[in-house]
Amino acid sequence: MKSGWSWFIIALTAINIAGCVWLLWRTSAKRTDGKPADSTSHVWDGDLTEYDKPLPRWWINLFYLTIAIALVYLLWFPGLGSFRGIGSWTSQREHNADWAAADRKLATTLKPYEGLAIDVLARDPGAVKVGRSIFGAHCATCHGSLAKGAIGYPDLTDAIWHWGGKPEDILHTVLEGRSAQMPAWRATLESMGGQSAVDDAAAYVLSLTDKSLLATNVEAVGRGRKLFAAVCSACHGPDARGNTQLGAPDLTDDYWLYGGTRPMIREGLNQGRNGVMPAQKPLIGETPARLAAAYVWSLSHPAGQ
Questions:
Q1: What is the rounded CA–CA span in Å between residue 190 and residue 185?
Q2: In the CATH scheme, what is the code of domain 110-177+278-305?
Q3: Which of 43, 165, 170, 251 shows a CA-CA span of 20 to 30 A to 20?
Q4: Across-strand partners of 182?
Q5: Per-residue confidence (pLDDT) for residue 34, from 0 to 100
Q6: pLDDT at site 138
Q7: What is the residue extent of each domain of the chain?
Q8: Which regions of the chain are under pLDDT 70?
């Protein structure tokens, strides 16, 4: 704060306090003009009269005490412009002290769970309860409060894991994060199969779960199969069952992270997909991330099984 504004605030505060003191002294003084206390001449409704009597002494003294307390407060705490107060109190210091106390309390709570495997933690109701709270605070924004996911965010309650569903796989995903990229294949596909190449590839992918397409779109599915083998099998595998090392999903099940309709599949081939799971270890710490992973594990493995 600039010194000019600081002195302005100090002066304004001092004037107000001095004004309160003067007003108390003025109103507590006895009348010296000899007139009786009830002769203010202010009368309402014929019998309601305003008296000109001093305020009760106890009330005056209490007000003086309040002013004295205000002066002590302004000297001790930073309330006068840029004056820091003789108590050196700051909201930042109090915030840091509260934060440190909360960290100590949290460390005590987390201590029993350090380094334990998530499938072990999932069998501990206390650990699951803590993990649920951590999930709600840090993970529900993307995966939803019920962990059911959304378009582009996986459902964590089923048994489908694009990066592997073993405890160590899930723990690595949560601690270190994941980054998956589906390149835009439109130009490549059209260079190999013409203008209909994207639709042909989409038809083949859809035929993996909708066998009726094999009869109604025989030619398109056949062309798409060749394109898939040449372009897509490198990540998704020749049988289209995916690759957990790359995060490439299994295309033969009925789960679609970005939607399983023809337009959504065509969009993925045209524009590509980019999925990022942020590493939680540097954000919330290893043990809290481990507990969140244990809660996630428990959703698809009841009783930690």
A1: 8
A2: 1.10.760.10
A3: 43
A4: 273
A5: 58
A6: 95
A7: 3-90, 110-177+278-305, 187-256
A8: 1, 29-41, 52, 215, 303-305
pTM for the model stands at: 0.72
Tokens of 256: 């679609």
- What is the predicted pLDDT for the residue at 304? 46
Burial track 103-118 (b if 16+ CB lie within 10 A, e otherwise): eeeeeeebeebeebeb
Nearest-angstrom CA–CA distance, 64 and 271: 75
Q: Given this model, what pLDDT does residue 48 score?
A: 77
| Angstrom distances, CA of residue 156 to CA of 80, 149, 185, 195, 234 | 55, 7, 29, 38, 26
